Amino acid sequence: MPLLASAIRLTVPILLAALGGVFSERGGVVNIALEGMMITGTFFGALGAYQHGPLAGALYATLGGAGLALIHAVVTVTFGVDQIIAGVALNLLAAGVTRFLTIQIFGVATQSPGVSGFVPFNIPGLDRVQALAPLVTGISPLVPVTLLLVLLGQWVLRRTAFGLRLRAVGENPRASETLGINVYRMRYTGVLLSGALAGLAGAYLVLEQAHSYLEGMTQGLGFIALAAVIFGNWWPAGALGAAVLFGFFEAVSLRVVASTIPYQVIQSLPYVVTILVLAGFVRRATPPAADGIPYRRGGEE
Amino acid sequence: MRSRGRLLLLQAAAPIVAVFAGGVIASAIILAIHENPLSVFGLMATFNMQAGSVASILTSATPLIFAGVATAIGFQVNVFNIGIEGQYYIGAFAASLAAFGLRGFPAPIHLVLIITAAMLGGLLWVWLPAFLRRRRGAHEVITTIMMNYIAFNVVLYLLGLVRDRNLGSTVRIRTPLFPPSAQMPHLAPLLNALGAPIPGYSPLNWFLVIALALAIVVWFWLRRSRFGYEARATALNPLAAEAAGIVVGRVQFVMFLVSGAVAGCVGLSDLLGRAGYFDIDFPKGLGFLGISVALLARNDPLGVIPAALLFGYLNRGAEGIQAFTNVPREVITILEALIIMAIVVAYEIMTRYVRVLRKQEVA
After folding, report:
1. B291 in contact with chain A, both atoms CB, cutoff 8 A
2. Which GO cellular component does the record give, naming just one (chain A) (predicted)?
């Protein structure tokens, strides 16, 4: 039970960022700066929570992540720069900017003062069962929020006009444009959503896990989220499955210190699994057809 | 061809414009925290003129030249090897094994063996993404990123196996010390004899010379050899190259492997010129800086040299700013990222502008 509870806690940030990745890539923009956006989210999450409490923390983090995403969108969509390169530069920028701001605002380079998170809740009724205690008590409200966001995301992508347009833009932007869809606007929306969600993932780390901002606290989770996007076959529901699996790996790796399997092996599993998926050994990876390809509006050079 | 002349002019101007644009934004940031950007950059310039700074700039440029050349080799033929990071980690670890594991060799032979081990390590780590790209169509950006993280875990695990057990449990985990035959000779004695006032403590070593030679050799290889011709044809137009009988996939596969082998050497200057052992604090992030260097150089192996020097200059300047002003050194990290953003946008606009010019000429 404690293992399962810890797996859920570790799943949430991966899942939020992966959900963001799905939106960005469904619109045709690869976002390897999820990590950087998450880092921005951790700083702004701490700042907001420090000044006005946890809700402001979540809000600041969302805006901070979206702010970095806006740069990604301007550079890759408007200017048509290679998305991988822009992502690499953004990750460097995020690391520099957060360190700079931490020094300016908190006086030290590597951490913020402690902040309090959301008030945890218990599931009424079940919280009396002793055996289930780790699972049904002290739950962060962000856990159900994340789950709702995933279900909402799945529905939006599958059923709504917006979702269909976003996917159309990611599959065939030229055809979408002839049908009257504003390709740039759709791609901007996808990228901004990814930044907002990755920022929220950062806020979760600050508000619900560490209770302060610590430099390097994302520890590559943004890249695990990228892996979850692929393993989840570019669908929110798939990303949910992948994130749960990866969260479980993480939880196990924290607990097998004494066992015969080195924890490094278990920590590597998400990456190994993703390579296997990409190589088609597990099942076919089918990214959106125009994923990663810059698009120029009709008649524009 | 009027457009050709303009293209050359723009190509030369774009990096300067990008550095300038980055500088303007960084100045705005410095102004925002109530400091004077002119005096900050002025201090950086005088600080970087000192002999100690020059040595430091050259030292930090050395791994960046390796990383930049490794990146450029891949990027030239549209192979996005984002895995330099993991490849050099594995390369450095393989080199350490050869460094403390092999004993009794004369220094030149031992060093050659170590460098070979580093290249094999990089090759080992790049082989899987290269193979999967060629045979299974797996996109190398994601596979190499994943390989980076696997590399860190693998090295951490193996380091635990070979760590120096004589240190006790209190000291940090590191490999046994390398023998003297595994130390790359420093350049300071030679440069002092030539009249350059490089301080004796500087870890600047012969890997700088090797890095410079490597950049030149790779440049010649791509310019003058048959394979280099095929690679450039692949870079310019893969479809046309394929039609002309060049096996584009094979060219990309070979360039991918070479990129990884060069990447294996990125950490050697630090490993053999400074530390003398491998530990868990071995520098990370050089691979990503290498990407920045290659972008600034437009994937030209020779251009990598000034680009790496610029980054070395900025890194040293950051230390000066940190020590002597109230501005945190992170301003320079931000500046570096901004330069990269500006340069890719500048190249993009430039390419588009030239295309428009060409169309007008035809019309």
Report:
1. yes
2. plasma membrane
Q: How many CB atoms lie within 10 A of CB B186?
A: 20
Domain residues for the domain of B355 are 1-35+326-363
Chain B: residue whose CA lies nearest to A267:
B153
Does residue B284 form part of some domain?
yes
Question: CA B112 to CA B107: how far, in whole Å?
Answer: 9
Residues B264 and B315 grouped into a single domain: yes
Task: State the total domains in chain B.
Answer: 2
- B201–A contact, CB cutoff 8 A: no
Nearest by CB to residue A84, choosing from B138, B141, B345, is B141
CB–CB contact B291 A79 (8 Å)? no
Q: What is chain B's length?
A: 363
Give me the average pLDDT of each 10-residue run along chain A (301 residues): 83 95 94 94 94 93 96 92 90 91 86 82 74 74 92 94 93 90 94 96 92 87 90 92 88 70 81 83 76 76 55
Distance (Å, whole) CA A102 – CA A108: 6
Which residues are CB-neighbours of B140 under 8 A, at least 6 positions away?
A: B79, B80, B81, B82, B83, B129, B130, B132, B133, B256
Q: For the domain that residue B291 is a member of, what is the CATH number?
A: 1.10.3470
Tokens 């790996």, located at residue? A249
The interface pTM score, or ipTM, of the predicted complex is 0.84
CA distance B24 to chain A (A): 16
Compare all CA atoms of chain A with the CA of B141 and give the residue at the minimum distance: A84
Looking at the structure, do residues B199 and B181 belong to the same domain, yes or no?
yes
**B93 chain-A contacts, CB cut-off 8 A:** none
**DSSP E strands, chain A:** none
Same domain, B135 and B196: yes
